[in-house]
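chain below, 305 aa
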Amino acid sequence: MTRVLSYNILVGGTRRVTKLASIIAAANPDVVGLVEANDPLVVEALAQRLNMQHAMSGRASHYRDWQVAVLSRLPIIDSKVHTYPEVLTRNHLLEVTVEETDGRHLTVFVLHQTADFYNGMSAVRKRRKEIQLALSLMSKRHGRPHLLMGDLNSIAPGEPVYGTKLLRYQLHKRDEYYKSIEALTDGAPKHLTETLLRTCIISPFIHLLLESRAISALIDHVGYRYAQGGIDLLQQAGYIDCFRQTNPRASGFTCPACVLSGRIDYIFASPELAPRLIESEVISEGNGVRGEEASDHLPVLAEFT
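prediction:
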């Protein structure tokens, strides 16, 4: 069996190594893709505590220098960092090949897609370009098992996102929550709702609007439009959404961990790997640590024969 975990650890995970390690260890993964791995010392500490090798897309020089990383109990055979600044303007695509226990090679790609929800459809088009680039790079692995995982900041077609919950979270809980888990709030990605609430003169009336069921339903509907990305492109290319494949009816929400409102963290298996998928789940706690105590995202696990 090979167990793979995708985990956004929130602005580097600084000061949360013990909690993050507890969540990861409880899931018992063989390979971990870390998003927002902005603090190289945290990546190294997690690797040491979990007795894993590691590979990083780069050593961040600032806590908002968005990086990704891989931890692996399996031998790392090769790693590459794909930098395309004209498309991946703030992020990188990390490609790591590991050797499974039966000697086969498995390649994992880790991606943190653009959020920038306040830019509306412009951000949607940007995320689609990022997926198109990822598909182009992954095409070189055609015929060999590989997967794409990470925080894609996108809602899968036909799935809900509760924009009203996000608004309430931005209004009442975000800053308080980040302080409670010792996260650097200035490094958090902005949302459409954050810009609206903090810069528009209508913000005093948001509270009243949220009390209306009709307005709430409209916000939830509009929220999906701004949270689209390239999930459909991955599906059209034959990649399998591991969680949805094994959990056709469960919501699988991953973010925000303290007020779950949508599913934006994924593991996609290539057509060659997909037949080996046996289970996938969202991890909500581990070793006595609740998911929201470690990060604002819940990790996703997939297991393959």
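Residues 2-162+228-304 form a domain with the Deoxyribonuclease I; Chain A fold (CATH 3.60.10.10). The chain has a mean pLDDT of 86.
thats it, cya
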